[in-house]
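Just wondering, can you check both lines?
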Amino acid sequence: MADVNTAPDATDVSTNDIGLNGSGSLRPEKADADFGISDFFEYAAQHGAELVDLKFCDLLGTWQHCTFPVDTWDEATFEEGLGFDGSSIRAWQDIDNSDMVAVPDASTTRVDPFFERPTVSVIANIMDPETKEDYSRDPRYVARKAQDYLQESGAADTCFVGPEPEFFIFDQVRYEQNQRRGFYEIDSSEGAWNTARHEEPNLGYKPSYKGGYFPTSPSDTFYDMRSDMTMLLRRLGIPVEAHHHEVGTAGQSEIDMEYAPMMQMADQFVWYKYVIRNVAKQAGKTVTFMPKPIFEDNGSGMHTHLSLWKDGDPLFAGDEYAGLSETALHAIGGILDHASALLAFAAPTANSYHRLVPGYEAPVNLAMSKRNRSASVRIPMYSGNPKAKRLEFRCPDPTMNGYLTFSALLMAMLDGIENETDPGDPLDRDIYEMTDAELAATETTPETLEEALIALEGDHDFLTKGDVFTDDLVRTWIQYKMDNEVKPLRLRPHPYEFFLYYDN
């Protein structure tokens, strides 16, 4: 395999080499920060690109795209951008003020491996066509402002983020919701419920509920698929630390990216979900990042590791609890102090709160701990190296918008450092050995999305410092989630209600 940081020579580039099943690098040899507009055209020509796919992330975290013949672009495209209808993008513009502009960022150029015709992809920033100003509801702009605010604060200059996204790989899914019927159905050849299914032949090898952590093949039936995902991510310049089967049955998986600066990781996360979904689809499978698709089995989280650095030095190592510095403790204090509001972004769906319940390794307690995985903030103790000292916020899940969530977590840490917020006593005890009084004194995560949104409404001043998040964005987020998720769910009877009440 070509080194992930190099591109093949022009004489070596071929469609087979850069395609889905190729081995060539899919990212430029030149570092992103040094890759400019002229480099884009040279790179596109080098790879025989006929098309350029312009991608941007909407407020909810979905990647959108529009494709152009590459010969229709010139240097002015990267300055003036390309127009689109902002009223057709969720939670953005009204129809009477709909025009928006997507401005390509040449430094994000990659070869897209999923199209039949040679295509390069570029991530865009969103701009108002009249004012020529960055759009305040563009999540990528929020992350750029958060990075600037960090450097202006003087507290640190780099925030490293290392997420651990989990997901399920299913054979198929069916669902419907209307006035007369509401149901969902998933299936997986690896599902514990299929041990008695008539197969030709049924060989077993189906991990039990909550029994799927780290099995070898043949029980780990998706090893090869995860390996394909891993190597493709590496070809795109996204380093991967490891992949493995997760605790759940039915193909629950985890592929961990190596930590990276916050803005870089936010870009990598949208590529990550794009790659995982498309590799699975090519194999005739379907992936969901839903936090809790299976009843009575572990859900899918996205534990997020965070550390702050300054002038190349780690700031979280010290002589306090768990080998932390006072700076780290105050950063943890900021996250715990604002945790309920943070979850409106970090666990942003109604389904998220089916995961955040006791009994499934879920982090329901708003406290820190060295090794207690029910605590919302864990301090990994695997290494004594000061560079490895970090905190792990365990509440997030992969339905998040990474640009917004990583930015919100950074702002909470900076708020804690500025105010020297005390994180409280660590929760190093087994929660099942605690008294009712002790449990009652331990603050827990919100039980519903609505509770998290209410918390955000009352606690978002820390986000609007430096105009990183605007009041408009916060209000828009809350209103969209209430009007399109919380209230519609409240209107609909749940299938389990028929089981409970039909014959009452």
